[in-house]
Specification:
It is a single chain. It contains 13 helices and 16 strands. 43% of the residues lie in helices and 21% in strands. It has three domains: 51 residues, no CATH class; 149 residues, Chloramphenicol Acetyltransferase (2-Layer Sandwich); 249 residues, Chloramphenicol Acetyltransferase (2-Layer Sandwich). The longest helix is centred in the first third of the chain and has 44 residues. Strands 8, 9, 10, 11, 12, 15 and 16 form a seven-stranded mixed beta sheet that branches. A six-stranded mixed beta sheet has the order 5-6-7-2-14-13, with helices on both faces.
Length: 484
């Protein structure tokens, strides 16, 4: 960091400590004490458990953007409905209201208080309330995408826990019988990492062995937290003053009608080859290929991209995946990342993506934002948080998520899993999300969009694989030129 930036950060800390914090401290302290009194009242009256502060943040959705994670699993053959319901009920421990049950939220309903939200045990909870069989046979991928798009926007009955599994009988374009499992989970229950862990370690017939992936958030945590706290005011000032994204993919009013698309499974070895040859990470490769896909999309619309597009990226902050992901929880924060769409050349986009990713990983920003979210959601009233969230979402075009799936073959009710993908939710005025899901040696790229923002998300999913191949060839040509 330059001296001017260090000086700026010191000045910001001075104003925060001397002027701003004392001014608002007593107001927030009174609000926090009132919350504690309300929590005591609900505990005595309903035996209610207060929402974790981050869980409560994800409960704040609206009719045009429901904050629901949708995952799609396609298995070969037919699944027996009765057998599946019995298995799922056992896996979720729906007959246990023990506080040690890692999936206890699955049998609880939500009670909204004046200042806080609460989980209350629902003894009448039944697996049949959450698992259903779609009555019609779906006979093409296009019809399946239309149906999933329709179901993804369906509102939950908040008199019971907000999750559901929908089984769909499906004849694919090759006339093969398959079962589609659409898993819908409100984000207030858990984040995508928790859900992915459940699907691969609990829903699977046997826990799938996965290769432990060392995340940057596991390295030097104490140092990164200290660095993040020092630069915290600078990060916040930079985020608040960042210009808003304006393009055909962001800025319009949303319709609330969601559309989904997913690519055909791609060979993940291509990504590994690019990663090794370019000495970067898997995420760098995927973001770079996405950047090229977006540039191509805009060019086809006759638009020359002048600015980088900002995306919201969820960052998992669990220190120990093997232990912490077992329980349904939200242990993540969100950072803004600038996808280098303003750079005209494929290889240059990958290089810039690598540089920006490394800056983010070593900045401490994710840790600061994680701590800031915890503090703010505990002491700041919702009528302040809501407009702040809306203001920040105006700066972001899309949500970008990457959840690694199982590295080995997986079966559900003795049926082999063929395809796995998911769609992360958007919030406020963000109308599009991109997702990457891996399963064994396959990669699936998914897009969910508001119909007003992107009426045909297939435009992007069909383009991505070509851009990945293009990046592979480009890296190969660069390496050959260096050898010569």
């Amino acid at each position: 960091m330059a001296f001017a930036e260090v000086l700026c950060c010191c000045i910001l800390w001075y104003f925060l400590v001397v002027h701003i914090i004392p001014l608002v401290w007593y107001i927030f302290l009174i609000y926090y004490l009132c919350k504690l009194i309300e929590q005591l009242f609900y505990r005595l009256k309903y035996n209610a458990t207060p929402f974790d502060s981050i869980d409560a943040l994800w409960l704040r959705d609206n009719p045009t953007n429901r904050i629901i994670i949708n995952a799609l699993l396609i298995v070969k053959g037919d699944i027996d409905m009765t057998k599946f319901k019995e298995m799922l009920s056992q896996k979720l421990r729906l007959d246990s209201n023990n506080a040690q049950n890692p999936y206890l939220k699955s049998r609880q309903r939500i009670v909204r208080g004046f200042l806080h939200d609460y989980w209350v045990d629902n003894p009448d909870s039944s697996i049949s309330d959450h698992v259903s069989l779609w009555p019609e046979l779906i006979q093409s991928k296009t019809s399946l995408q239309n149906l999933v798009s329709q179901l993804c926007t369906r509102e939950f009955n908040m008199q019971r826990s907000p999750w559901e599994y929908i089984l769909i009988s499906y004849i694919d374009d090759d006339k093969m019988l398959k079962t589609v499992l659409l898993v819908r989970l409100h984000h207030c229950i858990a984040d995508g990492i928790s859900l992915a862990h459940f699907l691969t370690h609990e829903l699977a017939d046997s826990a799938v062995e996965t290769v432990p992936l060392r995340k940057f958030s596991e390295r030097n945590r104490l140092l990164m937290k200290a660095k993040g706290m020092f630069w915290g005011p600078y990060f916040m000032a930079n985020m608040l003053t960042m210009p808003r994204d304006e393009s055909i993919l962001h800025g319009k009013s949303l319709s609330g009608r969601k559309l989904v698309s997913w690519s055909e499974p791609m060979d993940f070895d291509i990504v590994k080859e690019i990663k090794n040859n370019a000495q970067c990470t898997v995420n760098d490769v995927l973001v770079s290929a996405l950047s090229s896909t977006l540039v191509q999309f805009f060019n086809r619309k006759g638009i020359v991209v002048q600015d980088d597009i900002k995306v919201s990226i969820p960052i998992d902050l669990r220190p120990n995946m093997a232990h912490d992901a077992i329980r349904f929880s939200n242990k993540m924060t969100v950072v803004l990342f600038q996808v280098p769409t303003s750079i005209p050349y494929t290889f240059a986009r990958l290089k810039e993506t690598k540089v920006r990713s490394m800056e983010l990983k070593t900045s401490g920003e994710p840790f600061f934002l994680g701590i800031a979210l915890q503090v703010m959601t505990r002491i700041v009233p919702g009528f302040i948080l809501d407009p702040l969230n809306k203001f920040l979402c105006q700066k972001t075009t899309a949500v970008l998520s990457n959840v690694p799936g199982p590295q080995n073959e997986m079966t559900i009710c003795d049926r082999p899993l063929e395809t796995l993908t998911f769609w992360a939710p958007q919030r406020d005025n963000i109308g599009i999300s991109f997702s990457f899901a891996t399963h064994t040696d396959k990669l699936v790229f998914g897009v969910q969009s508001d119909a007003e923002i992107l009426p045909n998300p297939d435009e992007l999913t069909q383009e991505f694989s070509g851009k990945l191949i293009e990046l592979q060839k480009c890296i190969g040509e660069v390496n050959e030129s260096l050898v010569v």
